[in-house]
Fold this sequence. Notes:
This protein has helices at residues 4-14, 19-34, 40-51, 58-72, 74-86. By secondary structure, the chain is an all-alpha fold. It has 2 domains: 4-52, no CATH class; 57-86. It starts with a helix and ends in a 14-residue tail after the last helix.
Amino acid sequence: MVYIPFCIAFILIFMDIPVAISLIMGSLFYFAFLTDTLPLTMIVQKIVSANMATNLLALPFFIMIGSIMNYAGITKRLLRFCDALVGHKVGGGWPMSMSF
């Protein structure tokens, strides 16, 4: 009985449905039909409130800033600066085969 949500999730994954959606469908099936601990409306409310947190935006913004820095050439200059600071120390520089 408890394995039914796992089976649903795996079947949906093998049907080329995205992993997040298949896991949500499996868990919603469990909370809707197999248990009566929490009402389904409370589950949906908790999912929505958890996804509205602003700290979830940190990773996409971090990737976006890294991409902008890479296109602008700032990363190359930062690596040169760090190499100038600690490149003379043992283990502090790039290998000789790598160049900027």
